[in-house]
Amino acid sequence: MAKPAQGAKYRGSIHDFPGFDPNQDAEALYTAMKGFGSDKEAILDIITSRSNRQRQEICQSYKSLYGKDLIADLKYELTGKFERLIVGLMRPPAYCDAKEIKDAISGIGTDEKCLIEILASRTNEQMHQLVAAYKDAYERDLEADIIGDTSGHFQKMLVVLLQGTREEDDVVSEDLVQQDVQDLYEAGELKWGTDEAQFIYILGNRSKQHLRLVFDEYLKTTGKPIEASIRGELSGDFEKLMLAVVKCIRSTPEYFAERLFKAMKGLGTRDNTLIRIMVSRSELDMLDIREIFRTKYEKSLYSMIKNDTSGEYKKSLLKLCGGDDDAAGQFFPEAAQVAYQMWELSAVARVELKGTVRPANDFNPDADAKALRKAMKGLGTDEDTIIDIITHRSNAQRQQIRQTFKSHFGRDLMTDLKSEISGDLARLILGLMMPPAHYDAKQLKKAMEGAGTDEKALIEILATRTNAEIRAINEAYKEDYHKSLEDALSSDTSGHFRRILISLATGNREEGGENLDQAREDAQVAAEILEIADTPSGDKTSLETRFMTILCTRSYPHLRRVFQEFIKMTNYDVEHTIKKEMSGDVRDAFVAIVQSVKNKPLFFADKLYKSMKGAGTDEKTLTRIMVSRSEIDLLNIRREFIEKYDKSLHQAIEGDTSGDFLKALLALCGGED
User: Fold this and answer.
1) What's the predicted TM-score (pTM) here?
2) Of 263-272, 356-365, 638-647, which one has max mean pLDDT?
3) What is known of its domains (predicted)?
4) Structural domains of the chain in order of their starting residue, each with its CATH number
């Protein structure tokens, strides 16, 4: 087991057991497995309460006392996931990694995710121990086996990592940082094709401290994070490996927190991943993983394991976890630091927003109008032609087609489309045919008409549109419905929620930079209204108004600074605190604003995921986002979707919709990531 660096604080959840007696433990384990059945509670209690070093002593004592192999007896007595977990804990860490890799490359197919996880995250020392353990356990050369089971640039990077020769000098040369930034930029963004060798050499050999500075400078120089360039330039397992390397360079505990979350979210549990991480990190950085997990996913690792597993398997995992971070009801200081760093990244990122629908080359509105007329004339309708034309033209080009259609045929294209197509496809195609502001105005009108109000649609639109977009929506609403949007919101909503929506609907958000002194004052107001400030300084009604004004009118750069100051002041993340302290539509509106400020494409990626998960599909939300973001940032949304949910938006749509609606959505999606 790798020891923490001298002076470093131990961050594992498993410690040496005080008063340890290997003979006594060996006897207790023998008794637990003797006779009919086995005492699984006794087995898990002993093995999950001892360090790996102590477990090796128990193995030796067991063999000395009984002439038997403890791991062989455990395999015989236990079954399933519980057996895999307990046996994993009994192996020395390097031998456990060796077994995982052997399983990953044995038989038909390769478990690339397992290879990536282990080889991207281990230190030089751990890598050397792994190679030796593999040779000892299987009498085979690990490098040769990996070369025999993988190929291409993916194979080359695995071999580089396997050498365990990453530089470990903390002294960083600024000149070399700048040179590496330039080399990476020229190898990817500036080159026709990609020079993968440069990515492999730099990411596979430079020290962690050096690479963190390279990533910071890369963002400043190019306006995009290194991850975005990797996704744009690389592909397949090689892309996934390089992204994992970058994540581990930035924060190995955060990488594992994300892996654990993905192992348990949704239907089914990826038990092999869950076991591998809980075993391998229990004496390294489990406390850091827990803290980051709590911050990032707003629930404790303990509670997620508790809800996702069962029996002795669950009890063992919870012992390895070491504690429930929800019990204290607040963040650790380290978790607050992680939240602060997330806002810092949001503040410096200058990500270019890109849609998936662009103006068609050699656009001919006359030919398009004739093709659409032909597709709708006579018996039956040629939906494929309608989808192909409308999803591959920009909105400005669609308006030209509408005008040309009327000039040629004396007919209204929208009316003809309504009579020829129906259902989800009709809502999507007709939405694409409307100018964006008129489409948003219609969505707001539909959210407020009839019995009940669709508050989520109101929040989604008003919390995410720019000032210019909001002003255009107001004009379109007045033109189409002969009533102001403010009057409509006033008559259909109430209380603080109404005030928030009306404030957003004015389109008067400031557009300047940050003001540090003002940001600190604003953070204090937020702390007071969320009831975590030490000294409240105003009446609650006045504070509520000021808090609403801050969130609804301050510029995005200023709000990012406010939220950072809030963390420094309170050790809390503002989004989590709003969710905890507020309720109902007011809470949902404020959370949407905060999420939009932090990362608007991620906000929409989350909305799309939720519209398609579980039983049934929320076609209205799915349609609204695909239509409204297709020319703005749908490409960015796609990237956030695959990053967070480990599958592409294309795959999610394909698995959740069908027919012509599916075809149209995939055309808007613009490709498979």
Assistant:
1) 0.70
2) 356-365
3) A pair of annexin repeats may form one binding site for calcium and phospholipid.
4) 27-90 (1.10.220.10), 94-250 (1.10.220.10), 253-348 (1.10.220.10), 365-433 (1.10.220.10), 439-506 (1.10.220.10), 516-598 (1.10.220.10), 600-669 (1.10.220.10)
